[in-house]
Amino acid sequence: MRGDGRLANQLRPVTITRNYIKHAEGSALIEVGDTRVLCTASVEEKVPPFLRGAGHGWITAEYSMLPRATEQRTQREATRGKLGGRTMEIQRLIGRSLRAILDLKDLGERTLWIDCDVIQADGGTRTAAITGAFIAVVDAVSALRRRGALQKLPIRDFLAATSVGIVEEQMLLDLRYKEDSVASVDMNVVMTGSGKLVEVQGTGESAVFSRDQLNELLDLAQLGIQGLIDVQRATLGDLAAGIGQKPL
Amino acid sequence: MRGDGRLANQLRPVTITRNYIKHAEGSALIEVGDTRVLCTASVEEKVPPFLRGAGHGWITAEYSMLPRATEQRTQREATRGKLGGRTMEIQRLIGRSLRAILDLKDLGERTLWIDCDVIQADGGTRTAAITGAFIAVVDAVSALRRRGALQKLPIRDFLAATSVGIVEEQMLLDLRYKEDSVASVDMNVVMTGSGKLVEVQGTGESAVFSRDQLNELLDLAQLGIQGLIDVQRATLGDLAAGIGQKPL
Amino acid sequence: MRGDGRLANQLRPVTITRNYIKHAEGSALIEVGDTRVLCTASVEEKVPPFLRGAGHGWITAEYSMLPRATEQRTQREATRGKLGGRTMEIQRLIGRSLRAILDLKDLGERTLWIDCDVIQADGGTRTAAITGAFIAVVDAVSALRRRGALQKLPIRDFLAATSVGIVEEQMLLDLRYKEDSVASVDMNVVMTGSGKLVEVQGTGESAVFSRDQLNELLDLAQLGIQGLIDVQRATLGDLAAGIGQKPL
Amino acid sequence: MRGDGRLANQLRPVTITRNYIKHAEGSALIEVGDTRVLCTASVEEKVPPFLRGAGHGWITAEYSMLPRATEQRTQREATRGKLGGRTMEIQRLIGRSLRAILDLKDLGERTLWIDCDVIQADGGTRTAAITGAFIAVVDAVSALRRRGALQKLPIRDFLAATSVGIVEEQMLLDLRYKEDSVASVDMNVVMTGSGKLVEVQGTGESAVFSRDQLNELLDLAQLGIQGLIDVQRATLGDLAAGIGQKPL
Amino acid sequence: MRGDGRLANQLRPVTITRNYIKHAEGSALIEVGDTRVLCTASVEEKVPPFLRGAGHGWITAEYSMLPRATEQRTQREATRGKLGGRTMEIQRLIGRSLRAILDLKDLGERTLWIDCDVIQADGGTRTAAITGAFIAVVDAVSALRRRGALQKLPIRDFLAATSVGIVEEQMLLDLRYKEDSVASVDMNVVMTGSGKLVEVQGTGESAVFSRDQLNELLDLAQLGIQGLIDVQRATLGDLAAGIGQKPL
Amino acid sequence: MRGDGRLANQLRPVTITRNYIKHAEGSALIEVGDTRVLCTASVEEKVPPFLRGAGHGWITAEYSMLPRATEQRTQREATRGKLGGRTMEIQRLIGRSLRAILDLKDLGERTLWIDCDVIQADGGTRTAAITGAFIAVVDAVSALRRRGALQKLPIRDFLAATSVGIVEEQMLLDLRYKEDSVASVDMNVVMTGSGKLVEVQGTGESAVFSRDQLNELLDLAQLGIQGLIDVQRATLGDLAAGIGQKPL
């Protein structure tokens, strides 16, 4: 049993509140335990210069933490005047993950701007951001379809992410900050609704791991991601049916 | 009657949720109509180098908007690599206003970091930030008192702020974005519970105004601020009694 | 009597030297006591991208202090790589103030760049900058009219600014640095020739002030600004007649 | 057969030139096909402030490409004034990978600065950087041991890295740029001499992959990394014996 | 005869106004024709960290142009957020030149900050800056001597600078902007009162020059610099006697 | 005799390796003693905006040092976020020097990007950069001529550079770092094959020098540059004949 009473293979409670922000085309507040990330998807009716005339769309993601999302206040990157390496790594990961299930051709010459802002952090903010951003994207493209700009949802499959790790020799699903900070191996996994991998990032923190351990961690991640996709499906209701109509 | 059914001298509905963030010593989510600002107060047990040994504390404020707080997505200042003029002006205003009612000597050699993050913007974000930050500060210093670090609350008086303006010749209280963007005169007023002024910033937007109009706007602001302080008082409950025990 | 022998309601000696810089379309060196600010107005025959085709002009202001304008040398913002909050606040104030009396429609699709560089600082640099920039603007637009680019001066009224404050319970006009640094209330006022307010910025420095005090300070400011406008009128000579032909 | 005549599971020719730079404590020029990376390890006899007195050392890595390492000239990050996300991601990866096999306690209160500069790029620059940096680190710590500053090499195991990917349904080892740019799945793998994983980063490029494909790619990577470690072992000669004397 | 009526070997009119700025320890406004540079020397009673305890002083120079010093307004470097190459080159030149005649040992553990701000530019701003900064330095160290902090002036010799160039095959002294901008060869020369060279920077602008031409230009520069030093000597009056008491 | 056994007027051994980088249109690794600089010339088929339609080309140079090119590791400018003054000065010098012998009209509307990256530094990196960049430029424009884009080589003359200086009263050619760091006078000279000067930068390092010493140093530099041009000529082989066909 873990510090918060969970089993090793158990997710924290997950809630997703759709349309949290009135201005955004799509938005979702995702809460995974005490981790809270506000995800918005904004539609811009043009693409970056290097894609003009290419006949397909673009998606780009930004990630940030409020200064007091963390136990100790962290300095704003705007105040420091530049983005840190961790932030850049995470926003690249979010963008890449969403590109795997979004049909940019069907999107047309548009850009989706994804913003993931961590309101409160307790481990797993990047994976919560991906899971929540998926919902915001679905709502943003649904709005486009509703007003006739798209024929069908350009979403090939569900997409969610979670973290797994090895803490004191034990394999754990969905690490809280306390667990994450002492994990010897830490892995972020992004998967689709059909169980395909989009991204695997496994890291030994001054430690190493075997192929067997890798596989065991992936089993655990897959279990958790299926649970997250169940929540997504319930959250989206009728909209869920429009996802993945076009096979991957 | 205004677009949202309010009278000229009526505030929008105001709610303040205390302790919104578990990590922060004090935090409040303030909602003024559709404007939502998350305010946190963080205690650091030291002062900036230029104040070391001076025997009193310091307070500093930062302000930011999430990119999709606004109708059109705005670029992150962290991405642009620098703070804009508007942001700097606002964070200086917030810090200065709080310094007027905070007894820095009683605070001791500590820094209060105030973070005001606009989650959703619909006019009046800077004044909502001041009104909400006041609550976060009270909670942060109360926590210090509870753990014996302070003898009494170093808060001299209540503090709240609102905007007033002239729109199509009419004097209005608590402008929404739609009103603010067409106002010919725009004024932010910060006041204490005893009706003293802390800050008056009146601006003709390509327009000018008379001394009489200034006075009428100030009357309106005073009315609104009294309403806001009533909300603060109700929100704080028992804590309210500890404010202003030391005369200003 | 004040440190420099002035009465509470007396301005420092003011001189304005027109055409101080040979390259600029308009320029003025304004001296208010020991405060010296060099103001230039540069005409650019285009507007920023967001105004193209809008049929009217633009005005933008920049403000800076030479490193040794101050008692202690201050680091250059160019060396630090970014503008400070105080600088941004001041340049926004200067631009906004001038926009109130400049008819941007009559200016045509042109930009006026205002540069205010403090050569020597002894309090009141921002208000001196506004008062001097007004002269530079008049000269720049007069040059446009002389070469037939404008039919009449697009200047609706005179414009000047001063600071007032409360020092040791006394209301003072036109604060020197020594007075300003100990003032409990500090107010910058921008007014037109016809006595209309353009900007009022009153600030309690860790202090508060009453409505009555605000009014008394405004009376004092109005007196001072009338004196400054007298100097402007004398400086401009014949040109003064062309100002405000079009009612505000 | 691949464009350059290799089999799917074949590495490009690899050469490592030790002591390429006379000033550095350790340095290696690694060439993997046409990819050439200059790796240096610099010893600094202190640790960053946050580690002072902690009794162990630190290692930090920087990565850069010369502007004309690439087919099209790329702008210098020094000229743009900031590091890109890709660069930050890579330098974090290199540092993390080396930390997994370096015994920071045995290193003592010292910092190893790793610099990996890509002289010519043809795919796999980050994995070549890790493989080459390992040699530079061994030489730098050997120099410390030779002058008596260390008792034994604080290196727990060999370390090398390669990339694998899926190109037109085929699994390939050690991708050239031409292959990498069209791969649907791209994976970087960092492994130790004893076959343990240090880092696995698998990414679907607008594509997804199955658990079976992941495993097949890992088999291929393991094969390649063994080949690279054979080259490292031959390059180091006698020094190789001192590695991993302390079990991981 | 040149455009402004001068002979080829004639300087423009030169005036130097000492103590132009009341706050600075030394200051001079130098006017060379229409070029006007404000030079200040500020004394700081400490040296940069890398010189602490070395028993001698330091001198460092900064150079800047006001935006409207030039015919076309130039953007502020503070606004662009970084110093340009030309600025850096010039401030390094000014600092280096002054170090050649300043006895840093005699100065003691102090820093002299030199600020050269171009108020109006018409060619030769960097050489005017050196010539004027020399006066500001003499005044700053004289102030130190007067208050007993120094025994004698730590100035080994006079120092002045001018530009020479080849315009349409003709050798010219002290180029105005109009001449400088069409010169095929452009040379800045810094010399001491005893005729020794401190710096020679000769540049062919898309052109080349012979050894003979170099020598002829140096003759011309020497003539001009002697004239400038005569002006310096007259400006300094009695102080001139204290310079170079210690042989170079 | 000098530390490395050279006579005062002797160059260090010089080798130039052409086509060191496969991607670049022209590239050369130049080694002058232990100084190694990698120079590339990249052709871009357009000119900067300010030259569009002007009917001639442009050349621009960048210079950088790898962090461990130096005895002590130097921080990357990309990490610091800005170019230092020394770097800017050097890249301006390289660009200007090459412009003197390149016929920009004959080049057509193209830009040559010159990159000089110091792999290992032991004095004279800027002059080695110029000497090596010349070869890279010749190769780049030769490639343009071979594919018919140019009729003849737009190179008016050979170009090389060296440093000379006064060390302990002795005039030395081609200073190593050890010599350079103790030189009282330091001069960089850029010359053409026909013995014309392109750039002379002589600097007293807290010292001064006479006209006679200047001339002696120039004699020494001329001798060295002739030696360097002999190496260039030998390196270029047949291509050498195409240089300077058009008289300067």
Automatic annotation (TrEMBL), chains A, B, C, D, E, F:
Belongs to the RNase PH family. Residues 10-140, 158-222 form the Exoribonuclease phosphorolytic domain. It catalyses: tRNA(n+1) + phosphate = tRNA(n) + a ribonucleoside 5'-diphosphate. The keyword Ligase does not apply. This is Ribonuclease PH. One of its GO terms (biological process) is rRNA 3'-end processing. One of its GO terms (molecular function) is tRNA binding. PANTHER family: EXOSOME COMPLEX COMPONENT (PTHR11953), EXOSOME COMPLEX COMPONENT RRP41 (PTHR11953:SF0). The lineage of its organism: Bacteria, Bacillati, Bacillota, Bacilli, Bacillales. It comes from Sulfoacidibacillus thermotolerans (Acidibacillus sulfuroxidans).
